[in-house]
Amino acid sequence: MPDIIQPVYLTAEGKRKLEEELDYLCTVRRVEVAQQIHDAKEEGDISENAGYDEAKNEQAFLEGRIQTVQGMLSHARLIENGSSEQVTLGSTVTVCELGTEELETYLIVGSAEAAPAQGRISNVSPLGLVLINKGVGDKVVAKTPGGELHFQVMSIDDSSGKRR
């Protein structure tokens, strides 16, 4: 049975960062690791050479990361402008946790770009998942490992800055 290829949702900025990372890994890190391997071989017997073993492990990790980034870019789907009517990928949404006065604002992104501490949550995270397709005033319940959290959507901005 063939694997189902999942799209990798990225903002234009996220795609650019991955392309830059791939370029760095291929043009700088590969050369550095190859030099480490060369230098370790120059030290003589590689069968008991910790430097050689470490460099080969680094090379394996590097090649794995290159393949991962290439795969992400080959399946990338750019997130277009979010909606200001409903929460979608690319929307910036402000929510209020019910029972508090605290407002939190999040950009809804694909899982590859999620960084909750920077206000970027994945569309498949507990909160992101329940916010998708909701409108201003809607209430949601996010089922998190710490229990249920109740929120109300206060505003939605699309990526052009249009607010609802």
Note down, in words, how this protein is organized.
Helix 1 runs antiparallel to helix 2 (about 50-75). This protein has two domains: about 10-80, Transcription elongation factor, GreA/GreB, N-terminal domain (Helix Hairpins), CATH 1.10.287.180; about 90-155, Chitinase A, domain 3 (Roll). It contains three helices and seven strands. A five-stranded mixed β-sheet has the order 5-4-3-7-6. It has a two-stranded parallel sheet with strand order 1-2. It has about 160 residues and is α/β, with parallel strands linked by helices.
Secondary structure tally: strands = 7
CATH fold naming of the largest domain = Helix Hairpins
The CATH homologous superfamily of the largest domain: Transcription elongation factor, GreA/GreB, N-terminal domain
Strand content: 15-25%
Net shape:
elongated
Question: What is the annotated CATH architecture of the largest domain?
Answer: Orthogonal Bundle
String of helices and strands: EHHEEEEHEE
How far do the termini sit from each other? 45 Å
Task: Characterize the main sheet.
Answer: 5 strands, mixed
Low-confidence stretches: 160-164
Helix/strand class = alpha/beta
Helix fraction, binned, reads 25-40%
Question: Number of DSSP helices?
Answer: 3
Average pLDDT over all residues = 88
Going across the biggest sheet, name each strand in turn: 5-4-3-7-6
CATH structural class of the largest domain: Mainly Alpha
Number of structurally distinct domains: 2
Q: Round the Cα radius of gyration to an integer and report it.
A: 22 Å
